[in-house]
Amino acid sequence: MPRFLELWIESLPRLLTALVEMTVPLSLLSFAIALVIAVVVALARLYAPAPLKALAWMYVQVFRGTPLVVQLFIVYFGLPGVGIELAAFPAAVITLALNTGAYASEAVRASILSIPRGQFEAAQSLNLSRAATFRKVVAPQAMRIVLPPLANDFIDLVKGTSLVFAITLIDVFQVGRQIAAATYEPLIMYTEVALIYLALVSLLSLGQNQLEKKVSAHVR
Amino acid sequence: MSADDPLRVRGLRKTFGDLVALDDVSLDVERGTTSVLLGPSGSGKSTLLRCLNLLEKPDAGTIDLGEGPIEVGGKLTTARVREIRARSTMVFQQFNLFPHLTALGNVTLAPRENRGLSRQAAEQRGRELLEKVGLADKADSYPDRLSGGQQQRVAIARALAMDPDFLLFDEPTSALDPELAAEVVAVLSDLAAEHRTLVVVTHSLAFAKQVADRVLFLEDGKILQDGTPAEFFSSEDERLRRFREVISSV
Ligand SMILES: Nc1ncnc2c1ncn2[C@@H]1O[C@H](COP(=O)(O)OP(=O)(O)OP(=O)(O)O)[C@@H](O)[C@H]1O
Ligand SMILES: [Mg+2]
Known about the structure:
The complex is a heterodimer. By secondary structure, chain A is mainly alpha-helical. Chain A has helices spanning about 5-45, 50-65, 70-80, 90-115, 115-125, 130-160, 170-185, 185-215. The longest helix of chain A is centred in the first third of the chain and has 45 residues, at about 5-45. Chain B is globular, with a radius of gyration of 18 Å. The interface of A and B includes residues 119, 127 and 140 of A.
Protein backbone atom coordinates (compact mmCIF):
# COMPACT_ATOMS: atom_id res chain seq x y z
CA MET A 1 0.00 0.00 0.00
CA PRO A 2 1.39 3.47 -0.82
CA ARG A 3 2.51 5.52 2.11
CA PHE A 4 -0.14 8.18 1.69
CA LEU A 5 -3.04 5.71 1.72
CA GLU A 6 -1.68 4.03 4.77
CA LEU A 7 -1.41 7.32 6.60
CA TRP A 8 -4.82 8.48 5.46
CA ILE A 9 -6.52 5.36 6.71
CA GLU A 10 -4.60 5.39 9.95
CA SER A 11 -5.42 9.01 10.74
CA LEU A 12 -8.99 9.01 9.49
CA PRO A 13 -10.68 7.94 12.75
CA ARG A 14 -9.05 10.77 14.70
CA LEU A 15 -9.89 13.32 12.03
CA LEU A 16 -13.48 12.17 11.76
CA THR A 17 -13.85 12.28 15.53
CA ALA A 18 -12.72 15.90 15.51
CA LEU A 19 -15.07 16.57 12.63
CA VAL A 20 -18.08 15.13 14.43
CA GLU A 21 -17.20 16.51 17.85
CA MET A 22 -16.03 19.97 16.89
CA THR A 23 -16.30 21.14 13.28
CA VAL A 24 -19.87 19.98 12.63
CA PRO A 25 -21.51 21.08 15.89
CA LEU A 26 -19.61 24.36 15.80
CA SER A 27 -20.82 24.99 12.25
CA LEU A 28 -24.43 24.01 12.88
CA LEU A 29 -24.79 25.92 16.12
CA SER A 30 -23.12 29.04 14.74
CA PHE A 31 -25.18 28.97 11.57
CA ALA A 32 -28.46 28.54 13.42
CA ILE A 33 -27.69 31.60 15.52
CA ALA A 34 -26.40 33.46 12.46
CA LEU A 35 -29.74 32.90 10.71
CA VAL A 36 -31.67 34.45 13.57
CA ILE A 37 -29.27 37.40 13.64
CA ALA A 38 -29.52 37.74 9.86
CA VAL A 39 -33.32 37.99 9.82
CA VAL A 40 -33.47 40.40 12.76
CA VAL A 41 -30.72 42.63 11.34
CA ALA A 42 -32.18 42.56 7.82
CA LEU A 43 -35.61 43.58 9.16
CA ALA A 44 -34.01 46.28 11.30
CA ARG A 45 -32.14 47.66 8.31
CA LEU A 46 -35.30 47.69 6.22
CA TYR A 47 -38.02 48.73 8.62
CA ALA A 48 -36.65 49.89 12.00
CA PRO A 49 -36.54 53.51 13.16
CA ALA A 50 -33.43 55.40 12.11
CA PRO A 51 -31.22 54.84 15.18
CA LEU A 52 -31.77 51.09 15.11
CA LYS A 53 -31.24 51.07 11.39
CA ALA A 54 -27.90 52.80 11.85
CA LEU A 55 -26.93 50.37 14.56
CA ALA A 56 -27.73 47.40 12.34
CA TRP A 57 -25.72 48.93 9.51
CA MET A 58 -22.77 49.49 11.81
CA TYR A 59 -22.84 45.90 12.99
CA VAL A 60 -22.72 44.66 9.41
CA GLN A 61 -19.89 47.03 8.55
CA VAL A 62 -17.80 46.00 11.55
CA PHE A 63 -18.17 42.25 11.11
CA ARG A 64 -17.77 42.29 7.35
CA GLY A 65 -14.96 44.79 7.50
CA THR A 66 -12.60 42.92 9.82
CA PRO A 67 -10.93 39.51 9.50
CA LEU A 68 -12.59 36.59 11.23
CA VAL A 69 -9.38 35.54 12.96
CA VAL A 70 -8.99 39.01 14.44
CA GLN A 71 -12.57 38.86 15.68
CA LEU A 72 -11.85 35.50 17.31
CA PHE A 73 -8.82 36.94 19.07
CA ILE A 74 -10.70 39.96 20.31
CA VAL A 75 -13.53 37.86 21.72
CA TYR A 76 -11.38 35.13 23.25
CA PHE A 77 -8.17 36.90 24.25
CA GLY A 78 -9.35 40.53 24.32
CA LEU A 79 -12.68 40.54 26.13
CA PRO A 80 -11.27 39.11 29.38
CA GLY A 81 -9.53 42.50 29.65
CA VAL A 82 -12.93 44.08 30.29
CA GLY A 83 -14.12 41.28 32.51
CA ILE A 84 -15.87 39.14 29.89
CA GLU A 85 -14.34 35.69 30.05
CA LEU A 86 -15.67 33.13 27.66
CA ALA A 87 -14.63 29.53 27.24
CA ALA A 88 -13.15 28.81 23.83
CA PHE A 89 -16.18 27.01 22.41
CA PRO A 90 -18.79 29.64 23.23
CA ALA A 91 -16.34 32.33 22.13
CA ALA A 92 -16.00 30.57 18.78
CA VAL A 93 -19.78 30.10 18.39
CA ILE A 94 -20.50 33.73 19.19
CA THR A 95 -17.84 35.06 16.86
CA LEU A 96 -18.70 32.79 13.98
CA ALA A 97 -22.41 33.52 14.40
CA LEU A 98 -21.86 37.27 14.48
CA ASN A 99 -19.53 37.11 11.51
CA THR A 100 -21.78 34.94 9.36
CA GLY A 101 -24.86 36.82 10.57
CA ALA A 102 -23.46 40.01 9.08
CA TYR A 103 -23.02 38.48 5.64
CA ALA A 104 -26.27 36.55 5.78
CA SER A 105 -28.24 39.63 6.80
CA GLU A 106 -27.24 41.24 3.54
CA ALA A 107 -28.49 38.21 1.64
CA VAL A 108 -31.77 38.27 3.54
CA ARG A 109 -32.17 42.00 3.01
CA ALA A 110 -31.51 41.69 -0.72
CA SER A 111 -34.01 38.84 -1.00
CA ILE A 112 -36.73 40.93 0.63
CA LEU A 113 -35.89 43.91 -1.57
CA SER A 114 -36.18 41.74 -4.66
CA ILE A 115 -39.83 40.98 -4.01
CA PRO A 116 -41.94 43.11 -6.35
CA ARG A 117 -43.84 46.00 -4.80
CA GLY A 118 -47.06 44.58 -6.24
CA GLN A 119 -46.80 41.67 -3.80
CA PHE A 120 -46.83 44.01 -0.81
CA GLU A 121 -49.67 46.04 -2.33
CA ALA A 122 -51.75 42.93 -2.97
CA ALA A 123 -51.19 41.87 0.64
CA GLN A 124 -52.18 45.35 1.85
CA SER A 125 -55.26 45.47 -0.30
CA LEU A 126 -56.30 42.07 1.07
CA ASN A 127 -55.84 43.62 4.47
CA LEU A 128 -53.24 41.18 5.72
CA SER A 129 -51.44 42.27 8.85
CA ARG A 130 -47.73 43.03 8.63
CA ALA A 131 -46.92 39.80 10.41
CA ALA A 132 -49.11 37.74 8.10
CA THR A 133 -47.65 39.50 5.08
CA PHE A 134 -44.17 38.61 6.23
CA ARG A 135 -44.95 35.01 7.10
CA LYS A 136 -47.20 34.09 4.21
CA VAL A 137 -46.15 36.35 1.35
CA VAL A 138 -42.64 37.67 1.87
CA ALA A 139 -40.82 34.85 3.62
CA PRO A 140 -41.78 32.03 1.24
CA GLN A 141 -40.78 34.06 -1.79
CA ALA A 142 -37.63 35.43 -0.21
CA MET A 143 -36.62 31.90 0.72
CA ARG A 144 -36.15 30.90 -2.88
CA ILE A 145 -33.98 33.91 -3.60
CA VAL A 146 -31.96 33.80 -0.42
CA LEU A 147 -31.07 30.14 -0.55
CA PRO A 148 -28.04 30.24 -2.89
CA PRO A 149 -26.28 33.14 -1.14
CA LEU A 150 -27.10 31.66 2.26
CA ALA A 151 -25.63 28.33 1.22
CA ASN A 152 -22.53 30.23 0.22
CA ASP A 153 -22.34 31.87 3.63
CA PHE A 154 -22.80 28.51 5.31
CA ILE A 155 -19.97 27.00 3.28
CA ASP A 156 -17.74 29.95 4.17
CA LEU A 157 -18.63 29.40 7.80
CA VAL A 158 -17.76 25.70 7.67
CA LYS A 159 -14.38 26.51 6.21
CA GLY A 160 -13.98 29.41 8.62
CA THR A 161 -14.22 27.03 11.56
CA SER A 162 -10.70 25.90 10.63
CA LEU A 163 -9.45 29.09 12.28
CA VAL A 164 -10.64 28.10 15.75
CA PHE A 165 -7.38 26.24 16.41
CA ALA A 166 -6.05 29.74 17.01
CA ILE A 167 -8.17 29.95 20.16
CA THR A 168 -7.18 26.48 21.43
CA LEU A 169 -10.07 24.44 20.00
CA ILE A 170 -9.31 21.07 18.51
CA ASP A 171 -11.10 20.75 15.19
CA VAL A 172 -10.35 18.70 12.06
CA PHE A 173 -7.66 21.06 10.94
CA GLN A 174 -5.95 21.17 14.34
CA VAL A 175 -5.88 17.37 14.54
CA GLY A 176 -4.45 17.32 11.03
CA ARG A 177 -1.77 19.75 12.13
CA GLN A 178 -0.88 17.61 15.10
CA ILE A 179 -0.57 14.45 13.00
CA ALA A 180 1.39 16.29 10.30
CA ALA A 181 3.85 17.48 12.92
CA ALA A 182 4.24 13.99 14.41
CA THR A 183 4.62 12.18 11.08
CA TYR A 184 6.55 14.83 9.14
CA GLU A 185 4.05 14.35 6.34
CA PRO A 186 2.39 17.76 5.90
CA LEU A 187 1.49 17.25 2.25
CA ILE A 188 -0.30 13.97 2.85
CA MET A 189 -2.05 15.14 6.00
CA TYR A 190 -3.20 18.55 4.77
CA THR A 191 -4.43 16.97 1.55
CA GLU A 192 -6.52 14.60 3.61
CA VAL A 193 -7.88 17.45 5.69
CA ALA A 194 -8.69 19.36 2.48
CA LEU A 195 -10.54 16.33 1.09
CA ILE A 196 -12.58 16.01 4.28
CA TYR A 197 -13.69 19.66 3.98
CA LEU A 198 -14.43 19.11 0.32
CA ALA A 199 -16.59 16.09 1.09
CA LEU A 200 -18.45 18.01 3.79
CA VAL A 201 -19.07 20.98 1.51
CA SER A 202 -20.18 18.69 -1.32
CA LEU A 203 -22.72 17.19 1.03
CA LEU A 204 -23.98 20.67 1.82
CA SER A 205 -24.27 21.50 -1.87
CA LEU A 206 -26.37 18.40 -2.36
CA GLY A 207 -28.64 19.48 0.45
CA GLN A 208 -28.83 22.92 -1.11
CA ASN A 209 -29.98 21.45 -4.42
CA GLN A 210 -32.71 19.47 -2.70
CA LEU A 211 -33.92 22.51 -0.78
CA GLU A 212 -33.87 24.67 -3.89
CA LYS A 213 -36.04 22.19 -5.69
CA LYS A 214 -38.44 22.17 -2.80
CA VAL A 215 -38.88 25.94 -2.55
CA SER A 216 -39.06 26.36 -6.33
CA ALA A 217 -41.90 23.93 -6.88
CA HIS A 218 -44.18 26.68 -8.12
CA VAL A 219 -41.82 27.98 -10.80
CA ARG A 220 -42.10 26.52 -14.25
CA MET B 1 -75.80 54.12 9.04
CA SER B 2 -77.22 51.96 6.35
CA ALA B 3 -75.84 49.34 4.04
CA ASP B 4 -77.34 51.29 1.18
CA ASP B 5 -75.54 54.53 1.90
CA PRO B 6 -73.19 55.53 -0.87
CA LEU B 7 -69.47 55.72 -0.39
CA ARG B 8 -68.89 59.42 0.02
CA VAL B 9 -65.53 60.94 -0.79
CA ARG B 10 -64.99 64.60 -0.07
CA GLY B 11 -62.09 66.93 -0.77
CA LEU B 12 -59.58 64.22 -1.54
CA ARG B 13 -56.16 65.67 -2.20
CA LYS B 14 -52.91 63.93 -3.00
CA THR B 15 -49.61 65.48 -3.98
CA PHE B 16 -46.29 63.92 -4.94
CA GLY B 17 -43.82 66.68 -4.17
CA ASP B 18 -44.89 69.62 -6.34
CA LEU B 19 -47.22 67.52 -8.44
CA VAL B 20 -50.90 67.65 -7.56
CA ALA B 21 -52.16 64.19 -8.49
CA LEU B 22 -55.62 64.64 -6.94
CA ASP B 23 -57.01 68.10 -6.55
CA ASP B 24 -59.98 68.29 -4.20
CA VAL B 25 -61.82 65.29 -5.59
CA SER B 26 -65.32 64.56 -4.35
CA LEU B 27 -67.62 61.79 -5.45
CA ASP B 28 -70.34 59.48 -4.29
CA VAL B 29 -70.35 55.86 -5.29
CA GLU B 30 -73.84 54.39 -5.09
CA ARG B 31 -74.01 50.83 -3.84
CA GLY B 32 -74.75 48.21 -6.41
CA THR B 33 -73.52 50.31 -9.30
CA THR B 34 -70.56 50.22 -11.62
CA SER B 35 -68.60 53.43 -11.95
CA VAL B 36 -65.99 53.79 -14.64
CA LEU B 37 -63.09 56.20 -14.30
CA LEU B 38 -61.79 57.53 -17.58
CA GLY B 39 -59.15 60.10 -18.31
CA PRO B 40 -55.83 60.69 -20.00
CA SER B 41 -52.65 59.10 -18.76
CA GLY B 42 -51.41 60.79 -15.62
CA SER B 43 -54.79 62.30 -14.81
CA GLY B 44 -54.90 60.63 -11.40
CA LYS B 45 -57.17 57.62 -11.96
CA SER B 46 -54.88 55.10 -10.30
CA THR B 47 -54.07 57.52 -7.53
CA LEU B 48 -57.76 57.97 -6.79
CA LEU B 49 -58.36 54.21 -6.56
CA ARG B 50 -55.24 53.73 -4.48
CA CYS B 51 -56.34 56.47 -2.08
CA LEU B 52 -59.73 54.79 -1.64
CA ASN B 53 -57.90 51.61 -0.61
CA LEU B 54 -55.33 53.63 1.35
CA LEU B 55 -52.50 52.10 -0.63
CA GLU B 56 -51.67 55.75 -1.06
CA LYS B 57 -52.01 58.05 1.91
CA PRO B 58 -54.08 61.11 0.95
CA ASP B 59 -52.91 64.56 2.05
CA ALA B 60 -56.44 65.59 2.91
CA GLY B 61 -60.02 64.54 2.55
CA THR B 62 -62.70 62.40 4.09
CA ILE B 63 -64.12 59.03 3.21
CA ASP B 64 -67.54 58.04 4.46
CA LEU B 65 -68.29 54.36 4.28
CA GLY B 66 -71.71 54.74 5.82
CA GLU B 67 -70.64 55.41 9.40
CA GLY B 68 -69.80 59.07 9.09
CA PRO B 69 -66.87 60.81 7.45
CA ILE B 70 -63.40 59.62 8.35
CA GLU B 71 -60.64 62.16 8.03
CA VAL B 72 -58.03 60.30 5.96
CA GLY B 73 -55.59 63.19 5.55
CA GLY B 74 -54.47 63.09 9.17
CA LYS B 75 -52.58 60.45 11.03
CA LEU B 76 -54.34 57.11 10.94
CA THR B 77 -53.67 54.24 13.30
CA THR B 78 -52.92 50.86 11.75
CA ALA B 79 -56.20 49.55 13.15
CA ARG B 80 -58.10 52.41 11.53
CA VAL B 81 -56.37 51.85 8.19
CA ARG B 82 -57.24 48.18 8.25
CA GLU B 83 -60.81 48.98 9.20
CA ILE B 84 -61.16 51.22 6.15
CA ARG B 85 -59.31 48.78 3.90
CA ALA B 86 -61.58 45.93 4.93
CA ARG B 87 -64.35 47.64 2.99
CA SER B 88 -62.67 47.63 -0.40
CA THR B 89 -60.30 45.40 -2.31
CA MET B 90 -58.19 46.24 -5.30
CA VAL B 91 -57.63 44.24 -8.47
CA PHE B 92 -54.43 45.29 -10.14
CA GLN B 93 -53.40 45.73 -13.75
CA GLN B 94 -50.54 43.26 -13.23
CA PHE B 95 -52.72 40.80 -11.22
CA ASN B 96 -50.14 40.59 -8.42
CA LEU B 97 -51.04 37.02 -7.58
CA PHE B 98 -48.84 35.33 -5.00
CA PRO B 99 -46.63 33.14 -7.18
CA HIS B 100 -45.82 30.62 -4.45
CA LEU B 101 -49.47 29.77 -3.83
CA THR B 102 -51.90 27.88 -6.04
CA ALA B 103 -55.00 29.61 -7.39
CA LEU B 104 -56.92 28.23 -4.43
CA GLY B 105 -54.13 29.21 -2.05
CA ASN B 106 -54.29 32.77 -3.36
CA VAL B 107 -58.04 32.92 -2.82
CA THR B 108 -58.03 31.40 0.67
CA LEU B 109 -55.00 33.14 2.21
CA ALA B 110 -56.62 36.35 3.38
CA PRO B 111 -59.88 34.82 4.65
CA ARG B 112 -57.89 32.33 6.68
CA GLU B 113 -55.47 34.90 8.05
CA ASN B 114 -57.90 37.73 8.66
CA ARG B 115 -60.99 35.90 9.77
CA GLY B 116 -59.50 32.76 11.14
CA LEU B 117 -61.64 30.77 8.75
CA SER B 118 -60.84 27.07 8.92
CA ARG B 119 -58.97 25.61 6.00
CA GLN B 120 -61.97 23.59 5.01
CA ALA B 121 -64.43 26.47 5.13
CA ALA B 122 -62.04 28.78 3.27
CA GLU B 123 -61.37 26.19 0.58
CA GLN B 124 -65.01 25.43 0.05
CA ARG B 125 -65.78 29.08 -0.46
CA GLY B 126 -62.59 29.49 -2.50
CA ARG B 127 -63.64 26.76 -4.90
CA GLU B 128 -67.07 28.36 -5.28
CA LEU B 129 -65.45 31.65 -6.17
CA LEU B 130 -63.06 30.04 -8.64
CA GLU B 131 -66.02 28.35 -10.23
CA LYS B 132 -67.77 31.67 -10.45
CA VAL B 133 -64.89 33.09 -12.50
CA GLY B 134 -64.81 29.94 -14.62
CA LEU B 135 -61.68 28.41 -13.15
CA ALA B 136 -62.92 25.51 -11.05
CA ASP B 137 -60.46 23.20 -12.80
CA LYS B 138 -57.48 25.45 -12.09
CA ALA B 139 -57.73 25.47 -8.30
CA ASP B 140 -54.46 23.62 -7.86
CA SER B 141 -52.48 25.44 -10.56
CA TYR B 142 -49.75 27.91 -9.72
CA PRO B 143 -50.06 31.37 -11.28
CA ASP B 144 -47.01 30.71 -13.44
CA ARG B 145 -48.99 28.01 -15.23
CA LEU B 146 -52.05 30.19 -15.89
CA SER B 147 -52.67 32.55 -18.79
CA GLY B 148 -52.92 36.27 -18.06
CA GLY B 149 -56.68 36.20 -18.34
CA GLN B 150 -56.87 33.27 -15.95
CA GLN B 151 -54.54 34.98 -13.51
CA GLN B 152 -56.67 38.10 -13.52
CA ARG B 153 -59.78 36.02 -12.89
CA VAL B 154 -58.08 34.35 -9.94
CA ALA B 155 -57.22 37.84 -8.69
CA ILE B 156 -60.89 38.77 -8.93
CA ALA B 157 -61.90 35.64 -7.02
CA ARG B 158 -59.26 36.50 -4.42
CA ALA B 159 -60.75 39.97 -4.02
CA LEU B 160 -64.29 38.60 -3.81
CA ALA B 161 -63.24 36.24 -1.04
CA MET B 162 -62.82 39.26 1.22
CA ASP B 163 -66.50 40.19 0.72
CA PRO B 164 -65.64 43.83 0.27
CA ASP B 165 -68.32 46.49 -0.12
CA PHE B 166 -66.38 47.94 -3.03
CA LEU B 167 -64.26 46.29 -5.66
CA LEU B 168 -61.65 48.54 -7.19
CA PHE B 169 -60.19 47.64 -10.58
CA ASP B 170 -57.18 49.46 -11.98
CA GLU B 171 -57.06 48.75 -15.71
CA PRO B 172 -57.82 45.07 -15.16
CA THR B 173 -57.51 44.18 -18.84
CA SER B 174 -54.69 46.45 -20.00
CA ALA B 175 -52.03 43.76 -19.67
CA LEU B 176 -54.07 41.26 -21.67
CA ASP B 177 -54.53 40.28 -25.31
CA PRO B 178 -58.04 41.06 -26.61
CA GLU B 179 -59.48 37.56 -26.29
CA LEU B 180 -58.11 37.16 -22.78
CA ALA B 181 -59.40 40.61 -21.90
CA ALA B 182 -62.84 39.48 -23.06
CA GLU B 183 -62.83 36.67 -20.45
CA VAL B 184 -62.14 39.21 -17.73
CA VAL B 185 -64.72 41.69 -19.04
CA ALA B 186 -67.28 38.87 -18.99
CA VAL B 187 -66.56 38.29 -15.30
CA LEU B 188 -66.80 42.02 -14.59
CA SER B 189 -70.13 42.18 -16.41
CA ASP B 190 -71.43 39.30 -14.30
CA LEU B 191 -70.41 41.11 -11.14
CA ALA B 192 -72.06 44.30 -12.35
CA ALA B 193 -75.23 42.37 -13.17
CA GLU B 194 -75.25 41.01 -9.61
CA HIS B 195 -75.20 44.60 -8.41
CA ARG B 196 -71.87 44.50 -6.74
CA THR B 197 -70.31 47.89 -6.28
CA LEU B 198 -67.48 48.27 -8.76
CA VAL B 199 -65.15 51.16 -9.48
CA VAL B 200 -63.23 50.46 -12.67
CA VAL B 201 -60.39 52.41 -14.21
CA THR B 202 -60.19 51.57 -17.87
CA HIS B 203 -59.20 52.87 -21.27
CA SER B 204 -61.96 50.86 -22.88
CA LEU B 205 -64.83 53.05 -24.07
CA ALA B 206 -66.67 49.88 -25.05
CA PHE B 207 -66.60 48.70 -21.46
CA ALA B 208 -67.84 52.08 -20.26
CA LYS B 209 -70.65 51.98 -22.79
CA GLN B 210 -71.73 48.41 -22.05
CA VAL B 211 -71.26 48.00 -18.33
CA ALA B 212 -71.04 51.36 -16.59
CA ASP B 213 -73.92 52.94 -14.74
CA ARG B 214 -71.82 56.00 -14.41
CA VAL B 215 -68.76 57.56 -16.00
CA LEU B 216 -66.33 59.88 -14.27
CA PHE B 217 -63.83 61.72 -16.37
CA LEU B 218 -60.64 62.87 -14.70
CA GLU B 219 -58.11 65.36 -15.93
CA ASP B 220 -55.18 66.83 -14.04
CA GLY B 221 -56.42 65.41 -10.78
CA LYS B 222 -59.89 66.88 -11.11
CA ILE B 223 -63.23 65.34 -12.00
CA LEU B 224 -64.34 67.14 -15.15
CA GLN B 225 -67.47 65.13 -15.82
CA ASP B 226 -69.59 62.92 -13.64
CA GLY B 227 -72.72 61.44 -15.14
CA THR B 228 -74.35 58.63 -17.07
CA PRO B 229 -72.51 56.95 -19.93
CA ALA B 230 -74.98 58.55 -22.33
CA GLU B 231 -74.08 61.98 -21.00
CA PHE B 232 -70.40 61.23 -21.32
CA PHE B 233 -70.63 59.95 -24.87
CA SER B 234 -72.83 62.76 -26.09
CA SER B 235 -71.04 65.57 -24.29
CA GLU B 236 -69.89 68.36 -26.57
CA ASP B 237 -67.20 69.48 -24.13
CA GLU B 238 -64.08 69.99 -26.22
CA ARG B 239 -61.83 67.95 -23.90
CA LEU B 240 -64.22 65.02 -23.67
CA ARG B 241 -64.65 65.01 -27.41
CA ARG B 242 -60.91 65.00 -28.00
CA PHE B 243 -60.41 62.26 -25.43
CA ARG B 244 -63.06 60.07 -27.08
CA GLU B 245 -61.43 60.59 -30.46
CA VAL B 246 -57.92 59.83 -29.28
CA ILE B 247 -59.00 56.72 -27.40
CA SER B 248 -61.12 55.27 -30.19
CA SER B 249 -58.32 55.79 -32.69
CA VAL B 250 -55.94 53.43 -30.91
N1 LIG C 1 -45.59 57.27 -6.35
C1 LIG C 1 -45.57 58.37 -7.12
N2 LIG C 1 -44.56 59.25 -7.02
C2 LIG C 1 -44.55 60.38 -7.76
N3 LIG C 1 -45.49 60.69 -8.66
C3 LIG C 1 -46.51 59.84 -8.82
C4 LIG C 1 -46.61 58.64 -8.07
N4 LIG C 1 -47.72 57.99 -8.44
C5 LIG C 1 -48.30 58.75 -9.39
N5 LIG C 1 -47.59 59.88 -9.63
C6 LIG C 1 -47.94 60.95 -10.55
O1 LIG C 1 -49.26 61.36 -10.27
C7 LIG C 1 -49.97 61.62 -11.47
C8 LIG C 1 -51.19 60.75 -11.54
O2 LIG C 1 -50.77 59.41 -11.70
P1 LIG C 1 -51.76 58.19 -11.85
O3 LIG C 1 -50.95 56.98 -11.85
O4 LIG C 1 -52.84 58.32 -10.84
O5 LIG C 1 -52.35 58.47 -13.30
P2 LIG C 1 -53.33 57.57 -14.14
O6 LIG C 1 -54.49 58.42 -14.47
O7 LIG C 1 -53.59 56.30 -13.45
O8 LIG C 1 -52.47 57.33 -15.47
P3 LIG C 1 -52.38 56.03 -16.40
O9 LIG C 1 -53.60 56.07 -17.28
O10 LIG C 1 -51.14 56.27 -17.19
O11 LIG C 1 -52.33 54.84 -15.53
C9 LIG C 1 -49.00 61.37 -12.60
O12 LIG C 1 -48.45 62.61 -13.01
C10 LIG C 1 -47.94 60.49 -11.99
O13 LIG C 1 -46.70 60.72 -12.60
MG1 LIG D 1 -53.04 54.26 -13.82
